[in-house]
Amino acid sequence: MTTKQIKWGFIGCGEVTEKKSGPAFSKIAGSSIVAVMSRNLEKAKSYALRNNIPRYYNDAQALIDDKEVNAIYIATPPSSHATYAIMAMRAGKPCYVEKPLAKSYEECIRVNRISKLTGVPCYVAYYRRYLPYFNKVKELVESNEIGKLLSVQVQFHVPPRELDAKSGTDMPWRLQPEVAGGGGYFYDLASHQLDLLQYMFGVILEAEGYSQNMGGLYKVEDTFNACFRFDSGLTGSASWCFVAYESARKDRILLVGDKGTITFSVFDYKPIKLYTQRGIEEFDIPNPQHVQLPLIEQIVHTLQGVGTCDCDSFSATPTNWVMDKILGKF
C-alpha cells in the first residue's frame, strides 16, 4: 500500500520555522514542504531558495489554493491564526498552527466550530507534550514517586530584552497588542506552561489573576500573578514577570506531593530534580535537535491514517480560556 504523501504549504517563514519546526517537516517519511508564503515576496523567495522549496507566494489564499499543497502550517503571530486556519479548513486542508491557537478564547471557539463543521482537523504546536523531558516528569508523577500531588507552583521571571525599549512597529510583535492579542510575553510563553499543566493534570476549571505594567517599558502588561483549580481539585499558583532584575531570573515549576517534590523548567530544560526520602535525584533528559519533530511526526502519521494525534484545536482551547481569565478578558 502506498503511503499518502503530506505536502505542506507554510504561511509565514519567520525564525521559528528555520530552527524549531521547519527542518522537521522534511525529516519525516512521506512529508515534504512544497510552498511557502510571506507578505514580503522577497522574503518568501529567499526562504524558498535557502530551503529548496519549489514555490513561494505573497498571498495566503494563493498558497492554500495550490493543488500540490494538502496540509497547511501557520507560523504567523496569533492575530491571524484563526483567519488562516479557517481558510485552510474551508478549503479541505488540515492545518498545524503555532501556539497559542488564537489571540482569544472566543476566536478558538470559532476555529473549533469550523473544524467540526468541515470535519477537517486543526492541530496546535504545543510540542512540549511530546518531548521526552516532560514525559519523564509525567512518568515520575504517575509512578507515585512523590505520593499524592498537593500543589503546583509556577515561577517565571526574566529581565527585559534590549528590543523591549523599541517603539512602534520596531518593537517585538509580542508587545504589539493588535498583532499578539494582548498580554505581551505572557500570552506567548505562559501558554506552553499552562498547556503542559493541563496535559499532565487535567483541565483547569477555575482561574483568577492580576496583571499590571510595572516596568513602564512598553504599553502592555509585564507582571502577572494567578491561582487556578483543576477538575481533580488540585490547586496551583503562578507568577510571571518579564521586567525582573537578573538576580530574580527563574524558570521553574514545583510539584509538591505528600512524599516528595519535583522541580523542572519549561524553557531552560535544566535537569529534573526529584526530592524524596532517598535524597535528591537528577534526570538530564535530552530533547531532539528540532523540538517540534515528535509532534509533527505524530500529525503526519495521523494524516496518513496510521496514528492518532490529540494535540488539536479542541484540546488547545482551554489554555486560551485560562489565559483570558488571568488577564481579566471576561
Topology:
Layout lengths: L5 E6 L3 H11 L5 E7 L3 H10 L4 E3 L2 H6 L5 E4 L6 H10 L4 E3 L7 H14 L3 E3 L7 H11 L6 E9 L19 H4 L3 H18 L2 E9 L10 E8 L4 E7 L8 E8 L3 E4 L7 E5 L2 E5 L9 H11 L9 H14 L4
Parallel strand pairs: 1-2, 1-4, 2-3, 4-5, 5-6, 7-10
Antiparallel strand pairs: 7-11, 8-9, 9-10, 11-12, 12-13, 13-14
Helix pairs in contact: 4-5, 5-10, 8-10
Folded structure, characterized:
The protein is an alpha/beta fold and 330 residues long. It has two domains: 6-126 and 291-310, NAD(P)-binding Rossmann-like Domain (Rossmann fold); 132-286, Dihydrodipicolinate Reductase, domain 2 (2-Layer Sandwich), CATH 3.30.360. It has helices at 15-25, 41-50, 60-65, 81-90, 105-118, 132-142, 177-180, 184-201, 293-303, 313-326, and strands spanning 6-11, 31-37, 55-57, 71-74, 95-97, 122-124, 149-157, 204-212, 223-230, 235-241, 250-257, 261-264, 272-276, 279-283. The strands form two sheets. It has an eight-stranded mixed β-sheet with strand order 8-9-10-7-11-12-13-14, covered by helices on one side. Strands 3-2-1-4-5-6 form a six-stranded parallel β-sheet, sandwiched between helices. α4 (81-90) links the parallel β4 and β5. α4 (81-90) runs parallel beside α5, α5 runs antiparallel to α10 and α8 (184-201) packs across α10 (313-326). It is globular and about 60 Å long.
Summarize this, please?
By secondary structure, this protein is α/β, with parallel strands linked by helices. It has 10 helices and 14 strands.
Supply database-style keywords.
330 residues, alpha/beta, Rossmann fold, Dihydrodipicolinate Reductase, domain 2, 2 domains, 8-stranded mixed sheet, 6-stranded parallel sheet, 14 strands, 33% helix
